[in-house]
């Protein structure tokens, strides 16, 4: 028995003897491979931990800086600082230094919001939109309360607590997504899913999160294609998805690439990865064949994942695809996990530069559209989101490129502002054409209360501190007040040249 135990013990220890492996090359090779794999695994985990620690350190430093600033302000301003809340301290601190003109203008904007909301509440409650002239509610988004949901965050931020609570009760008790209606996946995502998530983030009221999950679950079957690129229309009750007939069966670029922010946010807040996986697969698929200039046509084949021959534009049906590439990178805290979004966006900015031209004689900078090898000297007002996007993304470059793109953003913003200033009403048309020696002329001349230029001016003011952008925004606001304000809301103009009022709906 003693010999048996001794023999057993010796057989175990022989694996620790180097000579054992020198006589057995295959086992030595296996041991080395196992050691390398284990080392790589440990190194990878340590790298991830270090990256996470760096991010946490940066965030902690920012929090400490904000706390220090808050303490200084408390010492200087005493009781006046009590209005600063933990969620909005950065912006409230700035409010201390506001001059009387800024305060007066802010109140006028709040009054405009209250005017539009009160009319909607009185005449179109629960409907998607209000028609101010007829005082009727219409359901152009399937009866999902689009205006109400889209306005929730604005009501909250502006401090309209009673109005917010009434809207909240409607969402909790009356909002029903089980409708036999073919909804736009894109419109429903940005207005309804996005609106509900914004309300949830601001209020922490879980009724908004539950409703966001409900509608998102009804949209998810649209992504069940061979490539994961979604169909753009889906029946909310039955889950049948398809594309519009007029696209020839193709999916629209902007409609397919403008759900990532909302669906990633929904996964983060629910802990359920299915929403994020569906939305991000679209980008991964497009990135497989993403061109060097980063420019995609507005029609994408959902079965092949490749572009069809069609227009390339930063206007209608292309615009927000490029916007979301940048904003998902920002949403993801600019980490390596979302680096491919930034890389795709930078490629697209190279492509954008190839489309930039200047007018004569005034040197207005504009972005062309492209079909095949031909450029069209046309720019949509919708493309006026680009100055804000470019300015927002400029800080991700090195110093030289950062300044180049910020300058481009400012040049484009000047052009967009002149879309407004060049008409008798000081309101922009839907698109503009550019001709040698004649600068710009209105193409489609209606105005339907689009926000893109105002958004870009807001970004530029925030990023540069230049109050000129505030003044331009105020001028545009005054033009809307003068030409679009109706006794029961705000209306679009059929022709902004002659200021002919249209029966265009008022929505958020």
From TrEMBL:
Key words of the record: Calcium, Coiled coil, Disulfide bond, Glycoprotein, Glycosidase, Golgi apparatus, Hydrolase, Magnesium, Manganese, Membrane, Metal-binding, Signal-anchor, Transmembrane, Transmembrane helix
Coiled-coil ranges (or none): 49-76
Disulfide bonds: 384-416
Pfam hit, one: Glyco_hydro_47
GO cellular component: a single term: Golgi membrane
Matches recorded under InterPro entries: 6hp_glycosidase-like_sf (IPR012341), Glyco_hydro_47 (IPR001382), Glycosyl_Hydrolase_47 (IPR050749), Seven-hairpin_glycosidases (IPR036026)
Membrane topology summary: Single-pass type II membrane protein; Single-pass membrane protein
Required cofactor(s): Mg(2+); Mn(2+); Ca(2+)
TM stretches of this protein: none
UniProt record, GO biological process: carbohydrate metabolic process; N-glycan processing
Pathway where this protein functions: Protein modification; protein glycosylation
Compartment list: Endomembrane system; Golgi apparatus membrane
Catalytic activity field: N(4)-(alpha-D-Man-(1->2)-alpha-D-Man-(1->2)-alpha-D-Man-(1->3)-[alpha-D-Man-(1->2)-alpha-D-Man-(1->3)-[alpha-D-Man-(1->2)-alpha-D-Man-(1->6)]-alpha-D-Man-(1->6)]-beta-D-Man-(1->4)-beta-D-GlcNAc-(1->4)-beta-D-GlcNAc)-L-asparaginyl-[protein] (N-glucan mannose isomer 9A1,2,3B1,2,3) + 4 H2O = N(4)-(alpha-D-Man-(1->3)-[alpha-D-Man-(1->3)-[alpha-D-Man-(1->6)]-alpha-D-Man-(1->6)]-beta-D-Man-(1->4)-beta-D-GlcNAc-(1->4)-beta-D-GlcNAc)-L-asparaginyl-[protein] (N-glucan mannose isomer 5A1,2) + 4 beta-D-mannose; N(4)-(alpha-D-Man-(1->2)-alpha-D-Man-(1->2)-alpha-D-Man-(1->3)-[alpha-D-Man-(1->3)-[alpha-D-Man-(1->2)-alpha-D-Man-(1->6)]-alpha-D-Man-(1->6)]-beta-D-Man-(1->4)-beta-D-GlcNAc-(1->4)-beta-D-GlcNAc)-L-asparaginyl-[protein] (N-glucan mannose isomer 8A1,2,3B1,3) + 3 H2O = N(4)-(alpha-D-Man-(1->3)-[alpha-D-Man-(1->3)-[alpha-D-Man-(1->6)]-alpha-D-Man-(1->6)]-beta-D-Man-(1->4)-beta-D-GlcNAc-(1->4)-beta-D-GlcNAc)-L-asparaginyl-[protein] (N-glucan mannose isomer 5A1,2) + 3 beta-D-mannose
Main location per the UniProt record: membrane
Top-level division of the source organism's lineage: Eukaryota
GO MF assignments: calcium ion binding; mannosyl-oligosaccharide 1,2-alpha-mannosidase activity
Active site feature: 187, 319, 430, 452
E.C. number(s) listed in UniProt: 3.2.1.-
Role noted for this protein: Class I alpha-mannosidase essential for early N-glycan processing. Progressively trims alpha-1,2-linked mannose residues. Produces Man(5)GlcNAc(2) from Man(8)GlcNAc(2), but only Man(6)GlcNAc(2) from Man(9)GlcNAc(2). Has difficulty acting on the terminal mannose of the b-branch. Involved in root development and cell wall biosynthesis.
Family: Belongs to the glycosyl hydrolase 47 family.
Protein name from the UniProt record: alpha-1,2-Mannosidase
Organism lineage string: Eukaryota, Viridiplantae, Streptophyta, Embryophyta, Tracheophyta
